[in-house]
Amino acid sequence: MVLDSVLYGNQFSVFGDILLAILYHNPRCSKSREALALCEASPQDVQVHAYLTKPLDYDTLHSLLSRLDGELHLAIRWKDTSFKKIANPDVDRTSIESIARFLSNNGHLMERPWLDNGISTRIGRPVEALIDLLQ
């Protein structure tokens, strides 16, 4: 079941003993739409957070990045034309703090989609990387 989210980051809904996962979703992204379809087909309840309309703050991003299952630098869309237009991006590819600060000001450059179950955060590139978090 997929639910529209008003919660994100460290805030999770709990039904009984079940912790709801959160999909950080960009509806304009084909990979994000594929991830949404995986969530809809999953037996797991998943909240959907449209991060472009409800931007993530530094603390939430830091929390998500601290649980990231994968390489930290993959959280940013480095090759995006919007990134190339930033005069001095001043972001350290190896620092959670630096990436969280950058993405809190440039959320549109967050690689997508992200799925977080409160224990682990994963970037859905490829989207199949999300499957085991949905079981």
Short description:
The protein is of the alpha/beta class and 135 residues long. The protein contains four helices and seven strands, in the order E-E-E-E-H-E-H-H-H-E-E. The protein has helices spanning 30-41, 58-66, 81-84, 96-105, and strands at residues 2-4, 14-15, 18-19, 21-25, 46-50, 114-116, 121-123.
Polypeptide structure, described:
- This protein is an alpha/beta fold.
- The chain has a single domain (2-134), classed as 3-Layer(aba) Sandwich (Glutaredoxin).
- It contains four helices and seven strands, in the order ββββαβαααββ.
- It has helices at residues 30-41, 58-66, 81-84, 96-105; strands at 2-4, 14-15, 18-19, 21-25, 46-50, 114-116, 121-123.
- The longest helix is centred in the first third of the chain and has 12 residues, at 30-41.
- The chain is globular, with a radius of gyration of 14 Å.
- It starts with a strand and ends in a 12-residue tail after the last strand.
- Residues 5-12 have low confidence and may be disordered.
